[in-house]
Amino acid sequence: MTRNTDAAGPPDPRIERTITLHMQGDWGAMNLHRVCGWLSMELADRCGPGTRMAIWNGRGFVDNVHAVGQREVDVALVTPAAFARAALRGAGVYAGGGHPDLRALGVVPQRDRLVVGISRRWGISSFAQLRSKRPALRLATSFDDGINHVGLAAREVLGRSGVDIERWGGSYLRDERPFETLAHLAEGRADAVVHEAVMLPAWQEIGADLHFLPVEEPVLAELADELGWPDAHLPAGYFPGAPELHTLDFSDFLLVCRADLPDDVAYAIAWVLGETRGVLERQYAHIPPERSPVTYPLDPIAIGTTPIPLHPGAARYYDALTRL
Known about the structure:
Blueprint: E1 20-24, H1 31-44, E2 52-56, H2 62-69, E3 75-78, H3 85-89, E4 102-108, E5 113-119, H4 127-133, E6 138-142, H5 149-160, E7 171-175, H6 178-186, E8 192-195, H7 201-206, E9 210-212, H8 217-227, E10 231-234, E11 245-249, E12 253-258, H9 263-275, H10 277-281, H11 300-303, H12 312-322
Parallel strand pairs: 1-2, 1-3, 6-7, 6-8
Antiparallel strand pairs: 3-12, 4-12, 5-8, 5-9, 5-11, 10-11
Helix pairs in contact: 9-12
């Protein structure tokens, strides 16, 4: 469903009291922090005098969910959005420490995928061939430390696909962010990769030298059933010369809070997400949408479509959209 943009929108929120809100974004200079800056500016304009917004550095993964659940911050952004599902029931990395009161305020749509690539010189274009050849690969990916979603996803995809890099005589090169990982490929230190941020220009520079491996259907089904991780496709030609790719979805920035966040604050944040979205869109308009870290134009209905339950205050805004 799309919104009728000719109709008057839900009422502009006004919070008369002074509030202090703590947000957690990324390492400090990436997209999650940019979203936090946009939200804090627009929200502060609609709250009482002396309102303050703090943006804390984070990693954007399990740490941000815990920061909200453990009351270190009020709201945080997490990517990919679907990975937060496990926190509700204490599954996976949240075993023994789940957050059943976690709620969503909305998502910032961002089309991304986790991809597995191997240098063409190995002649491997499927997981079946990879298991058969058992090569000693130097594989670049992120830290597998129980926090970083890329390292976590790489472990799950490779392990469930019957791949054992170190047992086969290979090695890992692990970093926090994709820039360092992709540099390992470009500069010859690695000959295989598992990572996301597929819109980065560096993928276009190294992509022609890689075979991208489709994740096998039984593995994708297991990840969906057990962890709630969805699958998705990349169209043919997204990487130079690459066919269509079926792999793990790694999309969307999910804005999370606790169920006890005041309703008027939750409504106001959702309203800002939907009604002032042009402030964020303009920051990415110089990049084609299919290559942008934020997939614009943003649709308020899509923003309100979240993988975990909405906070009731936020739901009030999105429900109002459906009546316009």
